[in-house]
Design a protein that fits this description.
The protein has eleven helices and four strands. With 192 residues, it is of the alpha/beta class. The protein has a single domain, classed as Rossmann fold (3-Layer(aba) Sandwich). Helix 6 links the parallel strand 3 and strand 4. It is globular and about 50 Å long.
Length: 192
C-alpha cells in the first residue's frame, strides 16, 4: 500500500447505521483507515440505537461493540477526558469527540454532524471533519481496488441476511451514502 491510511475518529452517528458501521469497520480491519473511538462514543450509538429499537436487548448492541473492539483493539482512545473542557463546540456533547481525535492523533472526524465541528475549532488541532459519504469517496480515490474488495467483504459478512448487491447499495443510499453508492453501482461486476 503506497499511501498511508488516514487516522479517523468514527463519531457515534456513523456507527449507528448497520451497513455504514459494517463498511467502516471492514475498511479499518483491512488497513485502509486507522480507526479511533472511545467508550463514550460506543455508549452514545448504543444508547440511541437501543432507544429506537425497543424490542432488541441492549446486550445485542454491546456484543457488537465488543466484537468491534476485539477486531480493532488499537482503535480505543483513552486519556482524552482532560482535554474536553478546552473546547467550545456548538454542541458541548460533541467535545469528547474532538478530544478523542486529538488524543488519538487523528487527522479527521467522520460524522454526519458537520455543523457541530466548525473548522475554526478543529484547524488549530490539525483535525478536519468529513461526512462518511465524502470519506468513503476519498478512500476510493486513494485505494480504489482495495476499497471495492473491502466493501465486497463487508457485504459478504452479512451471512444471515446476505442482501443482493442492489439491495445492499439501496440500503447504503438510504443511509446517506449517495456519492459512494454511485461509485459502487459503476463497479457492480467487481462486487459480485
Amino acid at each position: 500500500m503506497a499511501s498511508k491510511p488516514p487516522v479517523a475518529v468514527y463519531d457515534a452517528c456513523v456507527l449507528y447505521p448497520f451497513h455504514l458501521r459494517n463498511i467502516l469497520i471492514q475498511c479499518a480491519f483491512d488497513g485502509l483507515v486507522d480507526a479511533r473511538w472511545t467508550d463514550d462514543i460506543h455508549a452514545e450509538w448504543i444508547r440511541n440505537l437501543a432507544a429506537n429499537s425497543p424490542g432488541t436487548p441492549i446486550s445485542r448492541f454491546e456484543t457488537t461493540r465488543d466484537k468491534m473492539k476485539a477486531a480493532l483493539p488499537e482503535a480505543d482512545v483513552t486519556n482524552y477526558q482532560a482535554l474536553i473542557p478546552a473546547f467550545s463546540l456548538p454542541d458541548p456533547d460533541d467535545q469528547h469527540v474532538l478530544a478523542a481525535a486529538i488524543a488519538g492523533k487523528a487527522s479527521v472526524i467522520v460524522t454526519w454532524n458537520l455543523k457541530d465541528f466548525p473548522a475554526s475549532e478543529l484547524e488549530p488541532h490539525r483535525v478536519a471533519c468529513i461526512s462518511p459519504d465524502d470519506f468513503l469517496v476519498g478512500l476510493h480515490s486513494t485505494f480504489p481496488d482495495l476499497l471495492i474488495d473491502s466493501v465486497k467483504r463487508a457485504r459478504q459478512n452479512l451471512r444471515k441476511t446476505l442482501p443482493s448487491i442492489d439491495e445492499f447499495l439501496t440500503a447504503l443510499e438510504h443511509q446517506g451514502l449517495t456519492a459512494f453508492s454511485a461509485i459502487l453501482r459503476q463497479k457492480v461486476a467487481e462486487m459480485a
